[in-house]
Amino acid sequence: MGTAIVITSGKGGVGKTTSTANIGTSLALLGKNVCLLDADIGLRNLDVILGLENRIIFDIVDVANGSCRLEQALIRDKRSDHLFFLPASQTKDKSSLSTERMKVLVEELKQSYDFVLIDCPAGIEHGFHVAIAGADQAIVVTTPETAAVRDADRVIGLLEGENLKSPKLVINRIRVQMVRQGDMLDIDEIVQILGVDLLGVIPDDESVIRSNVRGEPVALNADSRVAQAYRNVARRILGDSVALMLLEEPMGFWSRVKRRMGGKA
Amino acid sequence: MSVTVGSEIRPLPHPPILVKGVKEGLLFILDDHCNFQFLIEHLEDLLGGATAGLFDGATVNVFVDYGERSLVQKEIQRILSVFLNKKNFVLREWGYDTRAHEGILANHRKMGSDGNFQTIFKGTVRAGQRLVFQGDVVVIGDVNPGGEVVASGDIYVFGRLRGITHAGVRGNRNAVIAAAEFEPMQLRIADIVSRAPEVDGRPLHTTMEFAYLSEEGMAVDKLQYRTAIAATYHT
User: Fold this and answer.
1) Numbers of helices and strands, H then E, in chain B
2) What tens digit of pLDDT does each residue of B36-95 get?
3) How close, in Å, is residue A163 to chain B by CA atoms?
4) pLDDT (tens digit, 9 = 90+) per residue, A198-232?
5) Residues of chain B by 3-state class (helix, strand, coil), percent to 5
6) B174 plus B76 within the same structural domain
7) CA–CA min distance B57, chain A (Å)
8) Which of A7, A39, A79, A100 gives the lowest tally of CB atoms within 10 Å of its CB?
9) Structural element, H or E, at residue B165
10) Is residue B11 part of a domain?
11) CA quadruple B82, B83, B88, B92: dihedral, nearest 10
12) Which CATH number covers residue B170?
C-alpha cells in the first residue's frame, strides 16, 4: 500500500508541475515505484515536462468515465522502469472529475505503487478539492515572494480544514545573492510565517528551464544543483535526514579575488 | 479551518450541518466554510434521505443559521426549498447570527468579571481565514498577512500580528487591539480604519503594543500604559 502526496501551492507558476516531475523522478531513481498523476484537467503540463506528450492515448477522464482501463491510460516513463504517468485531459474541463471518482482512482493506484504524486492545479476551486481528495499527505510549493507565501498560507489553512494536517514545505527558486542583499524573503522568514516543516529548498537555476524545454526532468542531470536539491527532497520523503544544501555558489577565482579586495562577490 | 466562535475548536471532520434542540424548536447550524455542493447534498440527505423520518411528526419551529457564508439567490432558494418541503416545519428564523444560535453560544461561554465574554483561541490565523468572536479574544499564535480576527470586544494577540484585526466591531470605541509583535496590515476599531504605524516606511518593531482610539483618532502605545490611558479617555 503506497502513499498519495498532493503537490499544491495556490498560486500559479511557482513550480508545482516541475516539482512533481522532479520529486517523482528522484524517488524513481531511488528505486521506488512512482505514479505521477496530472490533476490539472484542461491545462495539462506534466506530460510536456516529462517529454511524454506524444505517447498519450487515454487520460484520467477516460479512466474516470470507464472509457478505458486504468492500465491502458498509464504511460511508462521512457527513462525509468519505476516511473509511471497518468495524464490529465486537455479537452475536458475540471468539472469532468468528481472528488469521489478521484478518491477511488488514487486508492486503486496506491495498491500498485509506493508513491502516487498528484500535480494540483493552481487556485482553490473545484479542481483543487478534487486534486487533494485522495491524498494522504501534502507538499506545498512556494517561492520567496510575498504573494506566493500568502497563497501558500491560505492553502495550508484549507488543507488543515480538509484533514491534511502538517503539510510539508518546498521553497522553490531561491536566489542566494538576492536573499543576501535582502531583496528576497529568506528561508527562515517564510518558515516562520507558514509554521510548517521544511522539506527542501530548490535554488533558482537556468538548467530547470533548459530541461523543461527538452522534456527531461532536471533531476536526471546529476551535475545540476537543482537535481541535487530534488534528490534530497526525495530522500527526506523516505525518512532520511539530509542536511539542507549549502546554497552558496561555489566561488570562482575572480569572485574570490574581488571579495578579498573588498568588492561584492 | 472553520470560523470558530467560542473557546472550542470543532473536531474534524465535522458534519456540515448541526441540528440542535432549542427551547422553541429545532436549530440548524450550517457550516459556513465547506463547499456549497457538499453542504446541500448533506442537507438533502439529512431531510430527504434515510434520516428523513426523524424529522416527521408534529409541527415544529425551525431556525436556520448559515453563519458567515455569502449565498447567492440560487443557493438561498435551494436551501430554503429543502426546508419548505418538510410539511411540519415552520421556518421562524433565517439568517446569520440568529437569536437561537446566539442563545446557545451564550451558554457555552464563560462570563468575564465585567460581564463580557472572553475567549481564548489557540493556533495560527492563516491568510483567508476570518474568525469572529463575541466579546474579548486572546489569540495564542500568529495572525498571518491576509488573516482576519473580528471581535466585539478587545483583541489580544500573543504572537505576531500581521493581518487585519477589527476590535469593537459592534461600535464599541473603547475596544483595543494588542499584540506581542505589532506589524498589522490594518487596524480597525469600531467604525475607524487605520493602517499600522510606520517609522521611515518600516513598521514599528517594539514590544507589546496596543491600538486604541484617542480624541485625535487611532493611537498606538505601549501596553503598560493601557490603564493610565483608559483613565484619561474613557472615564
Assistant:
1) 4, 17
2) 888 888 888 888 877 777 788 888 888 888 877 788 888 888 888 888 888 888 888 887
3) 7
4) 999 999 999 999 999 999 999 999 889 999 999 99
5) 20, 35, 40
6) no
7) 34
8) A100
9) strand B164-167
10) no
11) -170
12) 2.160.20.70
CB contact B128 to A (< 8 Å): yes
CB contact under 8 A, B1 and A161: yes
How many CA atoms does the CB half-sphere of A86 hold within 13 Å?
27
Does B12 fall in a domain? no
B187 vs A205: CA distance, rounded Å: 40
* Same domain (yes/no): B141, B216: yes
> In this complex, do B145 and A157 lie within 8 Å of one another by their Cβ atoms?
no
Q: Do A234 and A205 form a contact (C-beta atoms < 8 A)?
A: no
Range A61-65, long-range pairs (CB < 8 A, 24+ positions): A61/A88, A61/A89, A61/A92, A61/A96, A61/A97, A62/A89, A63/A105, A64/A96, A64/A97, A64/A98, A64/A101, A64/A102, A64/A105, A65/A96
Check whether residue B36 and residue B56 sit in a common domain. Answer: yes
Q: Are residues B124 and B105 in the same domain?
A: no
A-to-B residue pairs, Cβ atoms closer than 8 angstroms: 38
What's the ipTM?
0.72
Q: Which residues of A touch B142 (CB under 8 A)?
A: 193, 195
Give how many domains chain B has, as a whole number: 2
Say what the pLDDT of residue B232 is. Answer: 62
- Contact in structure between A46 and A34 (CB atoms under 8 Å): no
Decide if B3 is inside a domain.
no
CA distance B62 to B64: 7
Residues whose CB falls within 8 Å of the CB of residue A247, separated by 6 or more in sequence, listed in order: A174, A176, A201, A203
User: If you average pLDDT over residues B27-43, what whole number do you get?
Assistant: 83
| Structural domain boundaries enclosing B161 | 118-233
pTM of the model: 0.68
Q: Is residue B8 part of a domain?
A: no
* Other Cβ atoms closer than 10 A to A265: 15
Q: Look at the block and give the residue holding cell 492515448.
A: A57
Domain stops at, among B95, B111, B127: B111
| Domain closes at, from B87, B111, B135 | B111
| Contact: B129, A157; criterion CB under 8 Å | yes
Chain B residues with CB under 8 Å of A151 CB are 127
Q: Do B29 and B96 sit in the same domain of this protein?
A: yes
Identify whether residues B122 and B90 lie together within a single domain. Answer: no
Q: Do B142 and A151 touch (CB under 8 A)?
A: no
pLDDT in tens, B158-217: 988 999 999 998 888 889 999 888 888 889 999 899 887 776 666 666 667 778 888 888
Q: Give the three cell numbers for residue B169.
A: 466591531
Give the largest Cα separation in chain B, rounded: 69
Same domain for B37 and B95: yes
Mean pLDDT value across chain A: 90
Of the residues A163, A193, A194, A196, the best mutation for testing chain B's interface (the one with the most B CB atoms within 10 Å of its CB) is A193
If asked whether residues B158 and B226 sit together in one domain, one would say yes
